[in-house]
Amino acid sequence: MLDRLKQMVPTLSRFRFLVQLLTFALSVYGGLLVGSYAAEKISTALPALSCAYDSANGGYCALVPLQHQMDHRVGAVMARAQQITVQVLIPVFVTFTTFLIFFFVLGKAFCAWVCPLGTVQEWLAKLGRRLGLEMRAVPAGKLGKLRPVKWLILLGLVFVVPLLVGLGYAPHSAGNPYCDICPSRIVTTLLTANTEELAIRTGGDGVSLGLGIVANLLAGFMIVAALAIRQPFCRICPMLAMNALFRHASLLRLTKVAHAKCDKCGICTKACPMDIPEIHHQHGRKAFNEDCTLCGRCAEFCPDDKIIQIKFGPLAVFSSAREYYKRRVKGETPEGEVKPIRIIRKPAGETHAG
Q1: What is the edge-to-edge ordering of all strands in the sheet holding 252-256?
Q2: What distance lies between CA 336 and its chain's CA centroid?
Q3: What pTM was computed for the model?
Q4: Distance CA 302, CA 56 (A)
Q5: What are φ and ψ of residue 219, in 5° steps?
Q6: pLDDT bracket for residue 352 (50, 70, 90)
Q7: CA 75 centroid distance within chain
Q8: How many Å from the N-terminal Cα to the C-terminal Cα in the chain?
Q9: CB count, 10 Å around CB of 192?
Q10: DSSP output for 75-144
Q11: What is the pLDDT of residues 153-173, one digit of tens each?
Q12: What is the mean pLDDT of residues 69-94?
């Protein structure tokens, strides 16, 4: 009895043959049960050579969709990635690398020594003094509220909004929003007798019109404010924020050592065109504040030797000195008021010897 039951159980080969018959019928003709090219077949990723060209199949092998995915998806994405590398990553890399190379050498001195808009603001401040206008400093309490503005402009108008335009979520006219409102666009072109940038573009969409209005208002405000407030736009300039990110990576930097007289002095902050209180109260790395433009006035008007220095690497390019301070204040106050030249007349009867 047991032997007969054993004979009835198929061998492994026969069992495999039965499975082959079943799966063959399913894979080759299974599609006939639901119709040719049915939307939902048993599988589209079988680990067997079930041909996709068989329109009556019930499923086909994974090699078919893999080839299509490698062609239409992976390959296409890699091609786009290569295009992104050439057209996006390399240009961005070159821009930032060039910026960092220049910044590594001169650092934030570009703000105070190179930037044309900063120079114009200084000239306007001097004009305001000549006109007898009272110069006003920005109080330390208001500086804390003003400082985040430059970071918001950098993040929003330089990075986020242009990126949204590129992604199609913002109109094309907002592609370079910061340049459209930057005072330098109007001020420096006017200095070349070009009035085109002063005109507000009314023929475009509302974005262009709005940006043009903001640009004119901001340029006008800067020109008027610079007559009485030192470097008004520099305080919210996104380039100042960019430079602040890397200020400690530059060879050129500001240093200050602790000194007992500093708490009672404060001349350095009075001399600073950015009204930075940290240069008065802090020393070391903290004295080199994010708003510092490396103009060097704090070092010029520091009345003690080697307290404030501008260094290029380990070398001191300029150091505060008592004798230099004495000569400097004869012609100008730390706040920037120019002292009039005093002409001393000799008595009428006095003659030169010899």
Answers
A1: 252-256, 308-312, 315-319
A2: 31
A3: 0.72
A4: 91
A5: -65, -45
A6: very low
A7: 33
A8: 154
A9: 7
A10: IHHHHHHHHHIIIIIHHHHHHHHHHHHHHHHHTTHIIIII-HHHHHHHHHHHHHHHTTPPPBPPPHHHHH
A11: 999 999 999 989 988 888 888
A12: 78
Positive or negative: CA dihedral 230, 231, 236, 242 = negative
With CA atoms as reference, report the closest residue to 250 among 112, 59, 70, 104. Answer: 104
Q: What is the pLDDT of residues 173-231, one digit of tens each?
A: 888 899 999 999 899 998 888 888 888 877 677 888 999 999 999 999 999 999 999 99
Decide: 303 and 325 in contact? Cβ < 8 Å. Answer: yes
pLDDT surpassing 90 at residue 70 = no
pLDDT tens per residue, range 101-123: 888 888 888 889 999 999 999 99
User: Please, which contacts does 179-185 make with residues 24 or more away whose CB atoms are closer than 8 Å?
Assistant: 180/208, 180/211, 180/212, 180/214, 180/215, 181/157, 181/211, 181/214, 181/215, 181/218, 182/215, 183/117, 183/215, 183/218, 183/219, 183/222, 183/233, 184/116, 184/117, 185/215
Q: How far is 237 from 99, CA to CA, in rounded Å?
A: 16
| CA distance to 25, 262, 269, 312, 337, per residue, from 257 (Å) | 89, 10, 15, 16, 28
Q: Which two tokens stand for residue 184?
A: 């330098």
Query: At 349, phi and psi to the nearest 5?
Result: -85, -5
Is 106:113 a contact under the CB 8 Å cutoff?
yes
- Tokens for 109, please give them: 């001195």
Which single residue is written with the structure tokens 């007349």?
345
What letter does residue 36 receive in the DSSP assignment?
T
Condensed to tens digits (0 to 9), the pLDDT of residues 287-325 reads 899 999 999 999 999 999 999 999 999 999 999 999 999
Q: Is the dihedral of CA 284, 290, 294, 296 positive or negative?
A: negative
DSSP annotation of 342: P
83-111 burial code (b ≥16 CB/10 A, e <16): eeeeeeeeeeeeeeeeeeeebeebbbbbb
| The two structure tokens encoding residue 90 | 């390399």
DSSP sequence for 263-301: HHH-HHHHH-TT--SHHHH--GGGGS-TT-----HHHHS
